Amino acid sequence: MSQSASIQVGEIDGYSWIRVCGRGDVFLAPTLKKFVDKTLSDGESTSPQLVVDMVECSGMDSTFMGILASIAIKVKSVANAGLQLCGVTEKNQESLEELGLDSLMEIHLQDSALSESGLGISDKLNPWVPEGQAKPDAKLILDTHQTLGGLSDKNKKEFSTVIETFKKQV
Prior knowledge:
Layout: E1 6-12, E2 15-24, H1 29-42, E3 49-60, H2 62-76, E4 82-88, H3 90-98, E5 106-109, H4 113-117, E6 126-127, H5 138-149, H6 153-158, H7 160-169
């Protein structure tokens, strides 16, 4: 994980709040995945309503967006669970919509009511670091790109080289 990238988490107004700090990339994706998996499976959260706060997210790569898509698909299978992104810049919104993630989750721009409610909560959030090292591996990269590829024919074509490359490594 790059030095400046991290997630901070907390229970805020009935939501499991996850703030992405820095660039959402291949190095941060495993940490986000581990937190969400733990939250949904171990009952760490009292709320299956997840908010991924992107107000401090400087950008995203395809692996990170693939993790977001995978999380959205997983959340849909959990009773009464939901996933929303807030604090999203217009540039990040364009990237998410271009890949079809807007069909999987609610996306709120920086000036939305949900995004506004996330301002001033830094003192309620705590850094989250998984037990053991969360690092990207070929299977994670393959899985995330296959998820993105499954969203549209355009994505399938765009990520075909990545998918074929990582299939050979898994």
